[in-house]
């Protein structure tokens, strides 16, 4: 296994540990690391109480590094995010900010209700987000920020705020957990509350991948990306030139997190998250259905699956689940998988792949799972 694949696998392990017990939130965790490797930012839109902050907090904790979190309001002062004026320096005649423990020093930042920030806050944030540079009075410093996650209950109607929201290249729209997953959410939430996280130093692997971003070969993916943009335009789905160009960073990051230095058509799926509205994303999923047919990623499979809803996007998840069930059952590690779980997985594999389309590796896992099923006499 190459160092690139090793780093991507460590990131996958961090995501799995961070989302243990948080049902239906793997997609958010995966997009946080995708944005971090791409050196971009993520906006999460959804109702309160959908575990947005819990996921961000757990991902930050498991990756390590400095974390800053704040709930913005109409009366939030810039000093609450960036630090207070250094009074000692002020008495000496210079206006400097004491940023100790504040956002300018953070590796990962989470800003809840981000659109409620004042003009002064949002203007300062623009410099931090775009250039990783904090400027205030005589204070000018480079920020170590890997990724900022903004959260809001909805997209703003105000054009100025919409322009600020456009600085978040990835947009994710989250909904409450559906009725059929409530039991799993309750059990998982109880488990998550009573299972302390152990930091895994994933930040070093994140930085390793991020440094390789500019070296990713996009020659094979670029024509397919241009074709996708043409299809979107023909369907009336507009993406700004700036977001089109920046989407290459997401595609390159997807390839790296898949353990590869060359991007292909299978890495186009992050383009969906670059579309700014939920309606545009829903329409684009159908418009790009054929182009997304080969989309897959062995370490970000929930984000791919939710973006494309295609059988190949489910390959990595089905394979990992099969390997987990086999390890628990054949190896007797922590109690075997139940017969119902194995049968449900076999049904899902058969529903997504026919005899001719079933990939050999998954076929081998399916054969071993089928051998565990007890046939009534």
Automatic annotation (TrEMBL):
According to the lineage, what is the superkingdom? Bacteria
AAA+ ATPase domain location is 38-178
Protein source organism: Chitinimonas arctica
Name of the featured protein: AAA family ATPase
Q: Name one Pfam family in it.
A: bpMoxR
């Amino acid at each position: 296994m190459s160092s690139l694949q090793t780093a991507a696998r460590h990131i996958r392990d961090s995501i799995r540990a961070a989302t243990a017990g948080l049902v239906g939130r793997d997609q958010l965790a995966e997009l946080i690391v995708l944005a971090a490797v791409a050196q971009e930012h993520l906006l999460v839109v959804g109702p309160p109480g959908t575990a947005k902050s819990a996921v961000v907090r757990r991902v930050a904790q498991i990756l390590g590094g400095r974390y800053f979190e704040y709930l913005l309001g109409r009366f939030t002062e810039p000093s609450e995010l960036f630090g207070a004026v250094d009074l000692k320096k002020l008495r000496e005649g210079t206006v400097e900010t004491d940023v100790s423990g504040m956002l300018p020093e953070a590796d990962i930042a989470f800003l809840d209700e981000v659109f409620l920030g004042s003009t002064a806050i949002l203007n300062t944030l623009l410099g931090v987000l775009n250039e990783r540079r904090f400027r205030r009075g005589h204070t000018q410093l480079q920020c170590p920020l890997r990724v900022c996650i903004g959260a809001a209950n909805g997209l703003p109607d105000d054009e100025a705020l919409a322009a600020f929201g456009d600085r978040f290249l990835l947009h994710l729209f989250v909904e409450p957990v559906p009725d059929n997953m409530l039991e799993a959410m309750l059990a998982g939430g109880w488990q998550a509350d009573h299972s302390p996280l152990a930091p895994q130093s994933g930040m070093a692997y994140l930085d390793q991948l991020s440094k390789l971003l500019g070296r990713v070969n996009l020659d094979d993916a670029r024509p397919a990306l241009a074709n996708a943009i043409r299809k979107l335009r023909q369907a009336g789905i507009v993406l700004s030139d700036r977001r089109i160009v920046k989407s290459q960073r997401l595609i390159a990051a997807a390839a790296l997190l898949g353990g590869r230095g060359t991007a292909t058509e299978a890495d186009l799926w992050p383009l969906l998250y670059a579309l700014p509205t939920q309606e545009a994303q829903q329409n684009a999923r159908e418009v790009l259905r054929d182009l997304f047919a080969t989309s897959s990623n062995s370490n970000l499979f929930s984000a791919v699956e939710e973006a494309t809803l295609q059988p190949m996007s489910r390959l990595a998840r089905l394979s990992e689940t099969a390997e987990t069930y086999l390890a628990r059952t054949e190896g007797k590690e922590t109690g075997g998988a139940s017969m119902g779980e194995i049968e449900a997985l076999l049904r899902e594999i058969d529903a997504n792949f026919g005899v001719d389309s079933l990939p050999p590796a998954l076929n081998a896992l399916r054969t071993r799972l089928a051998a565990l099923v007890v046939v009534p006499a």
